[in-house]
Amino acid sequence: MATLPPTKAGGVTNGELFEAYLDAVASKTDSERWNRLRLMKWCKDPLAQKRVVDTLTHDINQWIERSLSQDSERTKEPLSPATVHTLGHGAQAAAA
Has this prediction a pTM greater than 0.85? Predict the structure, then answer.
């Protein structure tokens, strides 16, 4: 799916958006393999099924918590909070 049909713009899911980004942008970078693995793993998350227009900050925070609670597929060790890159997430934790 390289492009999203204009008629579906309001009903597109997060997963469809990431797939379109992967085809249109991420696949053309030097780190295409890493981008593909990262985005396809993300598309397996329940948040990928949610429509973009219905996605709230709470949903993103739940995704962060799910991501941090999973062990790394490569090392089988818990993920470091530094692995999940979010704007403001570290600043909020530091302020608390």
Answer: no
> What are the tens digits of pLDDT across the range 21-75?
888 887 787 888 888 888 888 888 999 999 999 999 999 999 888 877 776 666 7
Residue among 12, 96, 90 nearest 51 (CA)? 12
* Torsion angle, alpha carbons of 5, 61, 63, 49, to 10: -30
3-state class (DSSP) for residue 79: coil
- Can you tell me the distance from the alpha carbon of 91 to that of 81, in angstroms, rounded to the nearest whole number? 13
Give the sign of the dihedral formed by CA 64, CA 42, CA 87, CA 83.
positive
